[in-house]
Design a protein that fits this description.
The complex is a heterodimer of chains A (116) and B (107). By secondary structure, chain A is an all-beta fold. Chain A has no helices and 11 strands. In chain A, β7 (68-73) and β8 form a beta hairpin. Chain A is globular, with a radius of gyration of 13 Å. Chain B is mainly β and 107 residues long. Chain B contains no helices and 11 strands. Chain B has strands spanning 4-7, 10-12, 19-25, 33-38, 45-49, 53-54, 62-67, 70-75, 85-90, 98-99, 103-106. The termini of chain B are far apart. Classes of the chains: A mainly beta (116), B mainly beta (107). At the A-B interface, β5 and β10 of A face β5 and β10 of B.
């Protein structure tokens, strides 16, 4: 059974940084593109970033490019999202998702709140 | 960016009734359209992929149809556990997937 467990969310001040992690199990982690998707009441579900199975290629939404960095450790089956220069509109639930043509499995999400 | 518009925003029905949810794209996405169900406090769950294929473990009362820019999710006979929010999502523009704004299915 695929399991994705996010951690690292919390309250951070504007301009601050936060690292989210996602621990994966139940599948061959390095064979899958992995993504971060966030959800807010106002903007709904929004793709944030993706990384190929090898970790060689990364992609970012325009809204986070230059501020967020996605990475993975295939020896530990973990996915990370380093978020910096955080803004109020980054406040959201962040989900990691396994991608197999579409988002086939999701974690339970971790809440990030950017506020002073 | 491919924008997906779902209708209606809210659908009020009773158990046993048939539900029809719509998703329209601003350009053709071929059949690269998925549907998700989300219940309060939970992550989205994949129901349908590539317009008409049920994901593993999804009951047969859920079906998807359409191609190009117009898609439909049908729930043939609503069960109490089906009342939730439903989202469509396109994967035609990898990896810049986009989602619709959701349809709330309420009793």
């Amino acid at each position: 059974e695929v399991q994705l467990v996010e951690s690292g969310g919390g309250l951070v001040q504007p301009g601050g940084s936060l690292r989210l992690s996602c621990a994966a199990s139940g599948f061959s982690f390095n064979s899958y593109v992995m993504s971060w998707v966030r959800q807010t009441p106002g903007k709904g579900l929004e793709w944030v970033s993706s990384i190929t199975g090898s970790g060689e290629t990364t992609f970012y939404a325009d809204s986070v490019k230059g501020r967020f960095t996605i990475s993975r450790d295939n020896s530990k089956d973990t996915l990370d999202l380093l978020m910096s220069s955080l803004r109020g509109d980054d406040t959201a639930i962040y989900y990691c998702a396994q991608e197999a043509g579409t988002y086939t499995s999701w974690g339970q999400g971790t809440l990030v709140t950017v506020s002073s | 960016e491919i924008v997906l518009t779902q209708s209606p925003a809210t659908l009020s029905l009773s158990p046993g009734e048939r539900a029809t949810l719509s998703c329209r794209a601003t350009q053709s996405v071929s059949n690269y359209l998925a549907w998700y169900q989300q219940k309060p406090g939970q992550a989205p769950r994949l129901l349908i992929y590539d317009a008409s294929n049920r994901a593993t473990g999804i009951p047969a009362r859920f079906s998807g149809s359409g191609s190009g820019a117009d898609f439909t999710l049908t729930i043939s006979s609503l069960e109490p556990e089906d009342f939730a929010v439903y989202y469509c999502q396109q994967r035609a523009n990898w990896p810049r997937y986009t989602f619709g704004q959701g349809t709330k299915l309420e009793i």
